Amino acid sequence: MQSNFAELYEKSFQDIKIGEVVKGTVIAVHERDIVVDIAYKAEGILPKDEFSQPELLTVGSEVEVLFEGFNDVEGTAILSKRKADRQKTWNDILSNATEGAIVDGRISRKVRGGFMVDIGMEAFLPASLVDIKPVRNQDMFIGLQSKFLVVKINHKRKNVVVSRKDLLEKSRNEARTEKLSTLKVGQVVKGKVKNITDFGVFIDIGNLDGLLHITDMSWGRISHPSDLVKIGDDIEVVVISIDQIKQKISLGLKQKGTDPWGTVNQRYAIGNQVRGKVVNILPYGAFVELEPGIEGLVHISELSWTKRVNHPSEILTIGMELDVVILSLDTAAKKISLGAKQAQENPWTVASDKFQVGSRVTGTIRNLTDYGAFIELEPGIEGLLHVSDISWTHKVAKPSDVLKKGDTAEVMILAVDTAAKKISLGMKQLSDDPWAELTKNFLAGLGLQGRVTRIVNFGVFVELDNGLEGLIHVSEIPDCSAQDIAKRFNVGDMLRCSILNVDHEGRKIALSCKNEPISA
């Protein structure tokens, strides 16, 4: 009996192929399922949840279902509404949709590498194509209803790859192009601060981001864009340039106001003394803000009349107020040269009155060199004591032999050059020249004794009893060569010698040991 029943149904379904979508008629609606007649005396039972809107189904409603075979035990057809919908969708995709087509869908679940999207059938959405920005929380996209771009169709495997990112980028580019077409240079637009960098601020002006460069934020100096704005601020800016090809726009904030350089000649003139604030310090000088947007440079050479400034930071700090004088003004180049020392009295202009030639002064030894000593006479005013002006009687090889840095010294003003800012000093000039008196009895052949003060390769210098110094040349030392001098004599040795010659003009005394016993 059962075999005959099966044969009956096989005969009924002989014109229907398994996997074929057929039309059926609803003949009964129950609480959980629906009975559908597909003709040929064939009925099938389908769960209500296979229908998207089961509440709209009534007896007599036509539906499309997929025939999967028959159940020879129960004598019913095996039908599927869900598979019929997917088959129909797939057929529609194959016949109508192409790569690049836009479809509606809902992200249903996560899978390895991305998501599955219900577009009437399941399509694969790679995680990298779900959004324009990198995704950290993938769960937030589950259940999202959206439009997707078909990027690949595999007919053999019957699978589809879609992208939401490409569609969003396409929409954004279209919106950006449309926005750009409405903008004009000089137009004032409203926007919101989206991002802040060291070089500027990105402003969202609606479907388009524009760059507000730090140099276009203020006519004055700012150290960082965050000094003026913060993320989320609403702001009005001016369109200053548009690149239609690269779809880039440059914005300006300072352009909303008037350039203060346009009227700078009305407020400043060469020779004016003004007060400003130090806003930047560099090795070659300091920038001083005279007013917002107007800055001038004080070169390092214009900082002080008297001090030797190696770096402006030695006397200036950021934020300090400073009196300056306008030295030059170039409105075209937007440059102002300033002088700080010109706002103060130049001490050198009165130096010749305060330090007259021939007067005695006391100062502090500030620096020693091979050729002399620099002595500070008052703060900022120094004079040079040359090595030749230290002593009448002694030949000073190095100033450090007789002077010490930091000591107080009495000197005489020898010369004052205010233009060159130089003062020449003398120490030996404090007393009369004793040369003539000390050498009046020095006749050739006169025997003397003295102490070795210096040893050189051509002889030895000897200090005589009266304080004068003479030279015994190596040729005037018996049985001695240049190589033997250092071995034969020591500083401090007492020697017997005689006058060989006195050069009054050159202030030199030549001595000899040829006719005298060397040891004293």
Tell me what the structure shows.
The chain has 520 residues and is mainly β. It folds into six domains: 2-85, Beta Barrel (OB fold (Dihydrolipoamide Acetyltransferase, E2P)), CATH 2.40.50.140; 97-168, Nucleic acid-binding proteins (OB fold (Dihydrolipoamide Acetyltransferase, E2P), Beta Barrel), CATH 2.40.50; 183-256, Nucleic acid-binding proteins (OB fold (Dihydrolipoamide Acetyltransferase, E2P), Beta Barrel), CATH 2.40.50; 268-343, Nucleic acid-binding proteins (OB fold (Dihydrolipoamide Acetyltransferase, E2P), Beta Barrel), CATH 2.40.50.140; 347-430, Nucleic acid-binding proteins (OB fold (Dihydrolipoamide Acetyltransferase, E2P)); 435-512, OB fold (Dihydrolipoamide Acetyltransferase, E2P) (Beta Barrel). The chain is built from six helices and 30 strands. The chain has helices at residues 2-12, 81-95, 165-182, 351-354, 435-439, 485-488, and strands at 21-29, 33-37, 43-47, 62-71, 76-80, 102-111, 114-118, 122-126, 145-154, 159-163, 188-196, 200-204, 209-213, 234-243, 248-252, 273-282, 285-291, 294-299, 321-330, 335-339, 360-368, 372-378, 381-386, 408-417, 422-426, 447-456, 459-464, 469-473, 494-503, 508-512. The strands form six sheets. The protein has a five-stranded antiparallel beta sheet. The chain is elongated and about 160 Å long. The N and C termini lie far apart (159 Å).
